[in-house]
Amino acid sequence: MSDFSSIPAELGLAQTWEQRNGSQWLEPESLDVRHMATVMLARGARFITITAMQLPEDEAARLDYHWDLDGELLTFTIKTADKIVPSVYDLCPAADWIEREVHEYFAVEFEGRQYEPLMLREGDPVGVCVPEEDA
Amino acid sequence: MSYRIPIGPYHPALEEPYKVNLVCNGERVCDAELSVGFNFRGIEYLAERRNFVQVIALMERVCGICSNVHTLSICQALERLAEIDPPPRALYIRVIVAELERLHSHILWAGVAGKLMGFKTMFMTCFLLREKVMSALEIISGNRVNYAMNRIGGVNRDIADPQSVLAVVDFLEREVNRVIIPVFASNRTVLERCAGVGVLTREQAKAYGVVGPTARASGVPQDMRRAAPYAAYGEMKFEVPLELAGDVRARLLVRALETIESCRILRQALNNLPTGDWWGPTEEVEVPAGTGISRVEGPRGEVLYSVTADGENDTPRRVKVRTPTYINMPSVRLMLRGARLADAPLIQASIDPCYSCTDR
Questions:
Q1: Structural domains of chain B, with CATH
Q2: Closest CA–CA distance from residue B21 to any residue of chain A (Å)
Q3: What pTM does this model have?
Q4: CATH number for the domain that contains residue A77
Q5: If you count Cβ atoms within 10 Å of the first and of the last residue's Cβ in chain B, which end, N or C, has fewer?
Q6: Which positions in chain A touch B227 (Cβ < 8 Å)?
Q7: How many domains does chain A have?
């Protein structure tokens, strides 16, 4: 089992991992997701997916980046008020379809990349999974 | 001069709707563009409109092959959130049904691979074997496809007669050792159609986050049953078959060897089935606010469920599903580059793709 306890310090974060409900969680106030991806890939972690969720206040979205490090599930949670976050696709090819899907479902913009339709077709409006009461 | 061959989204060579544009130069594939989404049903969105019991039945419909994996995953996520430990007998029954599902999925795929190789006798042999597994699942659950076995905190049905399932396991192990493994390991047709074809290197598999038998055929020893054991897998002894070649033959062999390991697990679980209840809580389960995550090793690889509840409503706030084909599919582009055009159908099928899972 790899030692993941030093990852927050490597990312310059004061928080430590909190284990609950099937994952180790890190929920910093702010996070450089590209630095996070670089650090995780350098440690040999496997990118699993991003769970996106529309939050009721201020059209914000929550993004959970899930990684596997030798069987340990590590989740970084960020909140974005403007729904704009840097893409990690160029660092991590596994993120390609995942970012495209989050874009289509929740209208999150991943800076620094182009989108081709994935689940939707060309010209379809994005944000199809934003609950109506939050749209 | 290159030319383009569009295949799909509806085509006799495809088991399910998706589209692949092959860019070819002569008989060589230079590149492939994959399009999915033709089965998009918005199931994650629908899940937010079902209560915590109804959502289990909904998620069972994500896939027609590995339906049990989805109910197991969502139940485990909810149990972690609600801090419920299912009884030991339920955990063993979950392992038994999950391994029977893996058996029928792998044997079905072996048959499909046989058909795509032009080896129809293999196809018919595999489907005959698979029928035995389907019958066992029907005896246990009353259903051949959606078994409805899992509930929050337990299972819906007991396995009253483990000996009858053991008889199926004995038969399958004997036939897989007698027919499938020798054919996939040494038959000349299989070697010529599969060896060195559709290679995915270990480095490529890691970069693309590939999972399941596709990853293990490229030398990535990753299996959730071993890496992060759930249900009763921590008590089972089994090997994780690994191949290094990363070609179609390696994917054939890994799945064939995994059927033997599934038989080993089934024998242990059926012979050591704990006594006691299997149904878990009889009162309505209160799901508190928070996010529960579960990972299960499905027949095609790791399935992840993330379920968020707000603690006020009896519906999930969010249900996220990451299926194995979803993460494996982009790597098919790498497998197809440089391949012979005639090998393209077999290569795309070699990850055992499920578009119903992918599109949800």
A1: 41-351 (1.10.645.10)
A2: 14
A3: 0.93
A4: 3.30.460.80
A5: N
A6: 68, 70-71
A7: 1
